[in-house]
Amino acid sequence: MDQAFERLLESWRGTRGNVIPLLQKTQELRGFLSQEDLRAIARATGRSPAQIYGVATFYAQFRFHPPGRHTLKVCHGTACHVNGAEMLDTTLKMELGIEAGQTTSDGEFSIERVACLGCCSLAPVVMLDAEVHGRLTGDKLKKVLRKAKQ
């Protein structure tokens, strides 16, 4: 366990309140929630590992595997859905061999399915790391991926 995580746990030791902020801070610090992290959180808060795991798995915001070097967020809001978000999912699956919630075996890319990125006028939209790519087609998305792989 690293010192930053140990300090975080110590600040929550014995706390029986809401553990969501602790889970969020742990994921921010570590990039994801490992089984070891969940057990340490359970010990620090006096809860069972099953209780902590139950809270963490209830919310889509938590990851249980290390994210890729690049994160692709595919918008599935109404405008993106109507304008081809499913086609973008298919393109990513064909190009990267993974689906939403997964990371490529080389650790380069993770895909997340999100409810809305707030770029409805650019639908369909994918966010690659912090950069929004709009009005995408399968071919345009392939170009975005090729550029990211360089």
Number of domains: 2
Q: Tell me what the CATH architecture of the largest domain is.
A: 3-Layer(aba) Sandwich
Q: Indicate the CATH topology of the largest domain.
A: Glutaredoxin
Mean pLDDT metric: 94
How large is the radius of gyration?
18 Å
Widest sheet, order of strands: 2-1-3-4
Describe the 3D structure.
The chain is an alpha+beta fold and 150 residues long. It folds into two domains: 3-58, no CATH class; 70-149, 3-Layer(aba) Sandwich (Glutaredoxin). Helix content is 47%, strand content 12%. The protein has helices at residues 3-12, 20-30, 35-45, 49-58, 78-82, 85-96, 138-149; strands at 70-75, 109-114, 126-128, 131-133. The chain has a four-stranded mixed beta sheet, covered by helices on one side. The protein is elongated and about 50 Å long. The mean pLDDT is 94.
Quick tags:
150 residues; alpha+beta; Glutaredoxin; 2 domains; four-stranded mixed sheet
Short structural description:
The chain is an alpha+beta fold and 150 residues long.
List strands and helices in order, with pairings.
Elements: H1 3-12, H2 20-30, H3 35-45, H4 49-58, E1 70-75, H5 78-82, H6 85-96, E2 109-114, E3 126-128, E4 131-133, H7 138-149
Parallel strand pairs: 1-2
Antiparallel strand pairs: 1-3, 3-4
